[in-house]
Amino acid sequence: xxxxxxxRIRANQLKLKEAELAxxxxxxxxxxxxxxxxxxxxxxxxxYLLTKPQTKKSAAATKxxxxxxxxxxxxxPDGCPNPNKVIPRKTHFKKYxxxxxNPSYHYLAVVKTTAGTFDVKLEPKLGPKSANNFYVLxxxxxxxxxxxxxxIPGFVIQGGSPTNNDFGTPGYSFxxxxxxxxxxxxxxxxxxNTGKPHSNGSQFFIVSGTSGEKGLTNTYSVFGQVTKGLSxxxxxxxxxxxANNGIPPKTTYKINTVTIQVTK
Length: 264
Known about the structure:
Blueprint: H1 3-74, E1 106-113, E2 116-122, H2 128-139, E3 150-152, E4 156-159, E5 188-191, E6 204-207, H3 210-215, E7 222-228, H4 230-238, E8 255-263
Antiparallel strand pairs: 1-2, 1-8, 2-7, 3-4, 4-6, 5-6, 5-7
């Protein structure tokens, strides 16, 4: 075979080999590129999956911490609402509140109504649980907006129901001691009940006339006395009704706010 022909064959073989090497190099480059992209996606997804739950957990933990801080801001260590703090309104409870009255202190409830304002001196010695109950519910603004839904002229004015009828409760009931005979006077405030034991809740009545002073049995826990604003009690009493046990009264008066004043 002539040398020139052999040279052409070798040259063609060399070109074919170089082309094959180039193709192989491109395939390796593409394969490596795909591997890099897949690896990057796997890393990104892994980081996202790891980070996402942690972010949720962190947000939940922050929310829990914030809620706990907010709760702690108006509660004392014994669970009682702090009268010197801003306390959110609450109208339903799971159980009777903690004992929050200090026997060394004096407590006055200033009751502002649409008929005027009257003051009630709380008397824990007569009805310790009832006085404490009224005190705590007042701090939670429980009575704000409720009405004197039962008014029997010359007898009693009744309120303290979140539903403004006989059936409203704070979510619990409790028992308290009964007062001595002769404890009901004009302006005396006591717990209303169903007539059964352990049935005190949030409803109370204020003696508004002679029939209340003489006709009530000592089965209603007394926890305070109106010391100022008996004329307001008389006004509410005058708007009552003798029909249907005083429900509804001819004129319905509402409690706007109950503010507690604490002194030593």
